Protein backbone atom coordinates (compact mmCIF):
# COMPACT_ATOMS: atom_id res chain seq x y z
CA UNK A 1 0.00 0.00 0.00
CA UNK A 2 1.37 3.43 -0.98
CA UNK A 3 2.08 5.99 1.70
CA UNK A 4 -0.23 9.00 2.05
CA UNK A 5 0.70 12.11 0.07
CA UNK A 6 3.26 14.32 1.83
CA UNK A 7 4.18 17.99 1.29
CA UNK A 8 6.72 19.06 -1.32
CA UNK A 9 7.94 22.58 -2.12
CA UNK A 10 10.79 24.26 -3.89
CA UNK A 11 12.13 26.51 -6.59
CA UNK A 12 13.23 26.06 -10.17
CA UNK A 13 15.00 27.76 -13.04
CA UNK A 14 14.25 27.65 -16.75
CA UNK A 15 17.05 28.10 -19.28
CA UNK A 16 17.99 27.77 -22.95
CA UNK A 17 14.56 28.63 -24.35
CA UNK A 18 14.12 28.15 -28.08
CA UNK A 19 10.85 29.56 -29.45
CA UNK A 20 9.51 28.80 -32.96
CA UNK A 21 6.49 30.73 -34.19
CA UNK A 22 4.05 28.35 -35.89
CA UNK A 23 1.42 30.81 -37.01
CA UNK A 24 -0.35 34.10 -36.40
CA UNK A 25 -4.14 34.37 -36.23
CA UNK A 26 -6.37 37.26 -35.13
CA UNK A 27 -3.43 38.93 -33.36
CA UNK A 28 -2.50 35.74 -31.47
CA UNK A 29 0.95 34.18 -31.76
CA UNK A 30 1.06 30.37 -31.68
CA UNK A 31 4.51 29.02 -30.88
CA UNK A 32 6.31 25.80 -30.04
CA UNK A 33 9.17 25.97 -27.58
CA UNK A 34 11.84 23.92 -25.88
CA UNK A 35 13.87 24.72 -22.79
CA UNK A 36 15.59 23.14 -19.81
CA UNK A 37 14.35 23.07 -16.22
CA UNK A 38 16.07 22.40 -12.89
CA UNK A 39 13.94 22.08 -9.73
CA UNK A 40 15.14 21.71 -6.13
CA UNK A 41 13.54 21.78 -2.73
CA UNK A 42 12.21 19.61 0.07
CA UNK A 43 9.98 16.55 -0.22
CA UNK A 44 8.78 15.81 3.29
CA UNK A 45 11.98 16.49 5.23
CA UNK A 46 14.38 15.28 2.51
CA UNK A 47 15.96 17.22 -0.36
CA UNK A 48 15.07 16.61 -4.00
CA UNK A 49 16.62 17.59 -7.33
CA UNK A 50 14.87 17.18 -10.69
CA UNK A 51 16.21 18.21 -14.11
CA UNK A 52 14.48 17.93 -17.46
CA UNK A 53 13.86 18.91 -21.03
CA UNK A 54 10.70 20.87 -21.73
CA UNK A 55 8.69 20.80 -24.97
CA UNK A 56 5.43 22.59 -25.45
CA UNK A 57 3.10 25.07 -27.03
CA UNK A 58 2.33 28.63 -26.07
CA UNK A 59 -0.29 31.10 -27.25
CA UNK A 60 0.46 34.81 -26.82
CA UNK A 61 -2.62 37.04 -27.04
CA UNK A 62 -2.74 40.69 -28.17
CA UNK A 63 -3.68 41.85 -24.64
CA UNK A 64 -0.38 40.50 -23.25
CA UNK A 65 -1.86 37.35 -21.71
CA UNK A 66 -0.55 33.89 -22.54
CA UNK A 67 -1.30 30.23 -21.93
CA UNK A 68 0.92 27.20 -22.27
CA UNK A 69 0.82 23.44 -22.22
CA UNK A 70 4.09 21.54 -21.93
CA UNK A 71 5.65 18.19 -21.17
CA UNK A 72 8.78 17.63 -19.10
CA UNK A 73 10.94 14.56 -19.70
CA UNK A 74 13.27 14.52 -16.74
CA UNK A 75 15.52 12.82 -14.28
CA UNK A 76 15.05 12.55 -10.53
CA UNK A 77 18.65 13.04 -9.37
CA UNK A 78 17.85 13.05 -5.64
CA UNK A 79 14.65 12.37 -3.68
CA UNK A 80 13.38 10.47 -0.64
CA UNK A 81 11.94 7.99 -3.17
CA UNK A 82 15.15 7.24 -5.06
CA UNK A 83 16.32 8.25 -8.52
CA UNK A 84 15.08 7.60 -12.05
CA UNK A 85 13.22 9.19 -14.92
CA UNK A 86 9.84 10.94 -14.95
CA UNK A 87 7.38 12.56 -17.35
CA UNK A 88 5.19 15.47 -16.27
CA UNK A 89 2.52 17.64 -17.83
CA UNK A 90 2.41 21.37 -17.06
CA UNK A 91 -0.37 23.81 -17.88
CA UNK A 92 -0.43 27.48 -17.08
CA UNK A 93 -1.50 31.02 -17.81
CA UNK A 94 -0.03 34.46 -17.30
CA UNK A 95 0.63 37.93 -18.60
CA UNK A 96 3.52 39.93 -19.94
CA UNK A 97 3.92 42.96 -17.67
CA UNK A 98 4.55 46.47 -19.04
CA UNK A 99 8.25 46.00 -18.16
CA UNK A 100 8.35 42.81 -20.29
CA UNK A 101 8.37 40.28 -17.44
CA UNK A 102 6.41 37.03 -17.84
CA UNK A 103 4.32 36.44 -14.72
CA UNK A 104 2.07 33.41 -14.39
CA UNK A 105 0.70 30.39 -12.55
CA UNK A 106 1.00 26.70 -13.38
CA UNK A 107 -0.03 23.18 -12.43
CA UNK A 108 2.49 20.33 -12.89
CA UNK A 109 1.95 16.64 -12.26
CA UNK A 110 3.63 13.35 -13.16
CA UNK A 111 1.90 11.38 -15.91
CA UNK A 112 4.22 8.44 -16.54
CA UNK A 113 3.08 4.85 -16.13
CA UNK A 114 5.54 3.38 -13.68
CA UNK A 115 8.94 4.81 -14.57
CA UNK A 116 9.12 7.55 -11.95
CA UNK A 117 10.21 6.76 -8.39
CA UNK A 118 8.19 9.76 -7.20
CA UNK A 119 4.71 10.99 -8.09
CA UNK A 120 4.01 14.70 -7.59
CA UNK A 121 1.22 17.22 -8.01
CA UNK A 122 2.39 20.84 -7.85
CA UNK A 123 0.97 24.33 -8.23
CA UNK A 124 3.17 27.35 -8.53
CA UNK A 125 4.13 30.69 -9.95
CA UNK A 126 6.58 31.71 -12.62
CA UNK A 127 8.35 35.06 -12.88
CA UNK A 128 10.42 35.20 -16.06
CA UNK A 129 12.61 32.08 -15.67
CA UNK A 130 12.14 31.48 -11.93
CA UNK A 131 9.58 29.01 -10.53
CA UNK A 132 8.26 28.61 -6.99
CA UNK A 133 5.91 25.74 -6.22
CA UNK A 134 4.34 23.51 -3.60
CA UNK A 135 2.08 20.50 -3.52
CA UNK A 136 2.18 16.85 -2.59
CA UNK A 137 4.27 13.81 -3.47
CA UNK A 138 4.20 10.06 -2.98
CA UNK A 139 6.89 7.45 -3.44
CA UNK A 140 5.97 4.78 -5.97
Give me some keywords for this one:
mainly beta; AOC barrel-like; 140 residues; single chain
Verbal overview:
With 140 residues, this protein is mainly beta. The chain has one domain (6-139): AOC barrel-like, CATH 2.40.350. It is 0% helix and 76% strand. The protein is built from no helices and 8 strands. An 8-stranded antiparallel barrel has the order 1-2-3-4-5-6-7-8. The protein is elongated, with a radius of gyration of 16 Å.
Give the percentage of residues in beta strands.
over 45%
Number of H/I helices: 0
Radius of gyration: 16 Å
Low-confidence stretches: none
CATH class: Mainly Beta
Task: Give the second-level CATH assignment, the architecture.
Answer: Beta Barrel
CATH homologous superfamily caption: SO1590-like
Helix-strand sequence:
EEEEEEEE
**How would a textbook summarize the main sheet?**
8 strands, antiparallel, barrel
The count of DSSP E runs of length 2 or more, i.e. the number of strands, is 8
The average pLDDT score comes to: 94
Helix content: under 10%
Query: Kindly, what is the distance between the CA atoms of the first and last residues, rounded to a whole number of angstroms?
Result: 10 Å
Number of domain modules? 1
Form type: elongated
Amino acid sequence: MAASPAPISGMGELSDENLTIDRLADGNVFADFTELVAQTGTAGSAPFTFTGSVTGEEVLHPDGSFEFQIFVDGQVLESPCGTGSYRARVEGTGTISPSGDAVGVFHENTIDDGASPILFDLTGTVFDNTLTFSGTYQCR
